[in-house]
From TrEMBL:
Organism lineage: Eukaryota, Viridiplantae, Streptophyta, Embryophyta, Tracheophyta
SUPFAM superfamilies found in the cross-reference section: Chelatase (SSF53800)
Annotated keywords: Lyase, Metal-binding
Species of provenance: Nymphaea colorata (pocket water lily)
Classification via InterPro entries: CbiX-like, Sirohydro_Cobaltochel/CbiX
GO MF term list: lyase activity; metal ion binding
Entry superkingdom: Eukaryota
The name this protein goes by in its record: Uncharacterized protein
Length: 38
């Protein structure tokens, strides 16, 4: 479960709907938290 909106899935969908042919993902954490520990 994502902690913030939009979810990763929703964000990918919007990119594709707007014509994206390639999406580059770079994980970025402001501070250690739940996702960092998993």
């Amino acid at each position: 479960q994502e902690l913030a909106k939009p979810s990763i899935e929703d964000a990918f969908y919007v990119c594709v709907q707007q014509g994206a042919k390639r999406i580059i993902v770079s994980p970025f954490f402001l501070s250690p938290g739940r996702h960092w520990k998993q």
